[in-house]
Amino acid sequence: MILVLTACTTAPPPDIVLVTWDTVRADRVDGLATWEGLAAEGITFSEARSPVPITLPAHATMMTGRYPPSHGARDNGRFTIDTDAPMLAEALSEAGYQTAGFVSAPVLGRTTGIARGFSVFDDAVSAPYRPADQTVDAALAWLDRRDPARPVFLWVHLFDAHRPWLPTRAAWEAAGGDAYAAEIASVDAATGRIAAALSDNALLALTADHGEGLGEHGEETHAWFAYDSTLAIPLLLWWGAGLDLGERGGTITAPATLADLSPTLRRLAGLPPIATDGADLLDLPAQRTVPVETVAPVYIMGAAPVFGTINTGTDAWLDLPSPEHYDLSTDPGQTDNRYRPEEAAALAEAVGAYPRRWPQEAAELSAATTAQLAALGYISGASSGDTEAPDPKDRLDLFNLLSTPRTQHPPEEALRLGEAMRVKYGLSTELALYIADCLGALGRLSDGLSVLEEALVAAPDDPRLLAAAALRRERRGAMEQQVVAIRAALAADPDHPTAHYDLGVTLTYLEALEEAESRLREAMARSPGDAQARRALAMVLRSQGHPAEAAEILQPVAEIMPVPCDLGRLFSVYLDQPQAARPLLEQCWDGGGRMTAPDYETLRGGD
Length: 607
What we know:
The two termini are about 50 Å apart. Helix 5 packs parallel to helix 7, helix 14 runs antiparallel to helix 15 and helix 18 packs parallel to helix 20. The strands form 3 sheets. The chain has an 8-stranded mixed beta sheet, with helices on both faces. A 4-stranded antiparallel beta sheet has the order 11-12-13-14, with helices on one face. Among the domains are: about 280 residues, Alkaline Phosphatase, subunit A (3-Layer(aba) Sandwich), CATH 3.40.720.10; about 50 residues, no CATH class. It is about 45% helix and about 10% strand.
């Protein structure tokens, strides 16, 4: 049964608050205090989906009521929202609303076009993202300054549930050692602060842009496939005591999509309707077909884009080089591909009903944008509209590697994985950059440059390869000059207090590891309590395949941050001694050290 809710005709325009959680699956909100409290006093949509498992395109759909082919923002970084797309904030501003947006990640910065219509737009974000409480602090401060005589439209975007997961230790322990659940709980708690500040005349919409694969269909993150693991999202509406929107605590089972948010909020604000791809959430049809897509495979590794449709409760069709068809009535997890060649016409009819506007020209990324996206696990490579491109299913292992932030693997393991992908798929731009970064983390600057130069043979005009190679050449030249200067300083003063250390570190990055080790041992002998010298020497020893000796070098300064982090990882990753590693990693975490995925696994107790 569909509930049709109506706003009280005598009430003033409501305050409208949109809170978006990044990367939160629909099946991960049960038991969350804020979510369940709002659901009990509002209405939830149990069959809500995103049309695209990518942050910018999904948010653009929320704000415009249009699917990605219509609003133009198809992927993160390379696309912006079309200037003629009808922005919700713009319409509300013209109707007299005070408008403000607060985002937590650079992927939603103002250059994307998402800020159009917001009088205040706070995208002052440091990499990799702004924690939820800080974003909420800024939003609540703005609410305190609002003109009480005018309604507000406030959008707050919370990113913490997106990788890299960096929960507090208390949140992680409360979530039973599940870092993803801990981060979802943190955005739920932060949302509670927003809800507590709302007036009786406020309407709150709470949803997510997409979910997370978590290994389903082999996809660890999101953006590569278009299954419900990354498309099914939480969605609810809550309203204050001053609004009369009908019965509280209900659930609507009719199919909903993020394109429905804009037309719904426009109506509840008293704005006239406009043509969109969405419907009114409060008057949804019982059966409905919605399009889904992701073009990220094109930009990540030259694979085919994914286009499909979902008819809730019946069929899901995916148009791929190896097509897919799922019966959702018996296979909601989409694990049994029932497609047969004789269904080609049915597939074409189902998917062809929705325009693709593809291929579409994308902009080149700046070096700064590329770095920001890479820090969050987003990557963007060369485009391809080639219909003969490989099926994304056939390059899933490469996607999982490149979409996981590099810091989530020890550098030697990241390099090993990258080299394995190189043997399997060849040296693409993305893989060359990945391997070069891994080598850089190991102090192998020249080796990294060699990899980039090899990739440039196949792609001599690639701007990112050229920029990365030029940067490494510049750094190598500067370090070579620095070596000459330090040697001169040592010749003049053999007892110089820092020259041995400086020379050892510089030689490490020039891969003169034998002399680097000698110089760092000299620096350590002159100052046995110097944690910096010991850490640098331990890195050289680890790079040379001597992790046990590296651990021995670090033991005397094990209480000095961030040595517990280094030492804990030596025991857990390189020496296979998780019991010895755990107290050190706990000390690292308590001291403010950044944790990695292997750290969490070690602390969870897996031997």
